[in-house]
Write a structure and sequence with these properties.
Length: 447
């Protein structure tokens, strides 16, 4: 197919966890989800347009096939009519040949009649010659016994002469009729045979046309089937895109609900912090007043711990509160493999939490890192390692499983440190001494 939906499918099915784990802010995540939704809707629009285009192609192919089928039907009828004409011509030819055979028989009869007439004329001629020609007729007339007998003899002679003349004329007519019938039959037979040749040629041409139409029809049917296959693929794609749209909309809604809950939780924590601060002030003021009445020194103000950072959605969350005092990259001529978050003059304890769910594989004191915790994480088949250094105290031990946002210690100033802060590292893979797997935490977590 022209469009590939595999990438979108992965994004819709397993990509959300990648978005959550990327450290995007809720706003950035919402923008990313909206962008994905727009991409899906664009593909849905393109899919629908292409399906319409392909359906129009199918309709056109079906219309062309209908026209060709109608043409083939017309040609089939023409072939049938031609076959009937061929059969008729063959019957006519057979009839004509039979007529010719019959004519031959009649000719034989005529020949016999002519032969007999020739024989009669020859006999009469011999009789005429033997009698001395015309004298015989004169002798016949002079031999009459009376005038009446003379007239009878004259009539008889005239009749004989006329009969001879009639025989000659009939002989001539029969010969002319014979020749005319022979010529007519030959012409008719030749015409019929030529018509038969023409009809047989027409039948071959019609069958060739049908074969061409059948070939074209098969090609159009093949195109129709291929286009229908594309339409089915587009329909499957449309179903996938619809599922993706539904999943993205559900995730956007869930993200909005999470953002709302987290905002409410932050507001609650801030209200609780203010309440505790007000309570601490009142208690301190009461203690100061009581000390003055007793003449005792004014008590030191009580340090209240800072609230832990809110747990964000996705695979990662911010490990502590406070501003970044030193970023990832080159610093003071050397590479800084993590991010420093300062205490910034805050009193009391500043909690540090696990940036993601995983297993603590080291929790000890290092001369450089101070109190440090190493946690291994497995996210979408990828191994990650997080490092939390310079902690004031350790709240977890090696081998312990922790969940995202779980307390692991307080921000401190232990080890090689110039002030209270958290040094946080993120490694894409296992931790090693050269820190070759270190990546910028800010690329994955919103600081």
């Amino acid at each position: 197919m022209r469009r590939k939906i595999g990438t979108i499918a992965i994004a819709a099915v397993i990509g959300f966890s990648g978005f959550f784990g990327s450290g995007l802010s809720e706003k950035a995540f919402a923008n990313e989800m909206q962008q994905r939704l727009n991409e899906v809707k664009d593909q849905q629009s393109s899919n629908e347009s292409t399906r319409t285009e392909k359906q129009n192609e199918v309709n056109q192919l079906q219309a062309e096939q209908a026209e060709i089928r109608a043409e083939v039907e017309r040609l089939d009828k023409a072939v049938a009519e031609t076959k009937n004409k061929i059969s008729t011509k063959k019957v006519e030819i057979d009839t004509t040949r039979k007529e010719i055979e019959k004519l031959k028989e009649e000719i034989e009869v005529l020949k016999e009649r002519i032969a007999k007439r020739n024989e009669l004329l020859e006999d009469r001629a011999r009789s005429f010659q033997q009698g001395g020609g015309a004298v015989n007729y004169l002798d016949v007339l002079l031999g009459a016994q009376s005038f009446g007998d003379f007239l009878d003899r004259v009539g008889a002679v005239a009749t004989i002469v006329q009969a001879d003349r009639d025989i000659l004329q009939a002989h001539q007519k029969d010969m002319e009729d014979l020749e005319a019938k022979e010529l007519e039959m030959r012409e008719k037979l030749a015409s019929l045979e030529q018509q038969l040749v023409d009809l047989e040629k027409m039948e071959v041409e019609l069958k060739n046309q049908i074969a061409e139409k059948d070939k074209l029809l098969a090609e159009l049917k093949k195109k129709e089937q291929a286009t229908m296959h594309e339409i089915h693929e587009l329909e499957n794609e449309a179903e996938v895109l619809a599922s993706q749209e539904k999943a993205i909309r559900a995730e956007i809604k869930a993200a909005e609900e999470r953002a709302k809950r987290e905002a409410e939780e932050r507001a609650r924590q801030e209200a609780e912090r203010k309440r505790l601060e007000e309570q601490r002030k009142r208690e301190h003021e009461a203690a100061v007043a009581a000390a003055k009445e007793k003449g005792e020194p004014e008590p030191e103000p009580e340090h209240i711990s800072s609230p832990p950072p809110p747990v964000s959605s996705g695979s990662w969350t911010r490990p502590t509160t406070g501003s970044v005092t030193s970023g990832f990259g080159t610093r003071w001529g050397s590479q800084h493999y993590g991010i420093d978050v300062g205490k910034n003059g805050r009193s009391g304890n500043v909690p540090v939490v696990a940036a993601g769910s995983g297993t603590v594989f080291q929790a000890y004191y290092s001369s450089s890192y101070g109190n440090v915790v190493f946690i291994t994480h497995y996210i979408d088949g990828q191994t990650w390692t997080t490092v939390y250094a310079h902690l004031e105290s350790l709240g977890v031990s090696a081998g312990q499983s922790v969940s995202k946002g779980q307390f692991i210690g307080n921000m401190g100033n232990t080890g090689f440190s110039t002030g209270p802060h958290l040094h946080f590292e993120l490694h894409k893979g296992s931790w090693n001494g050269s820190k070759s797997n270190a990546v910028n935490p800010a690329s994955y977590i919103n600081f």
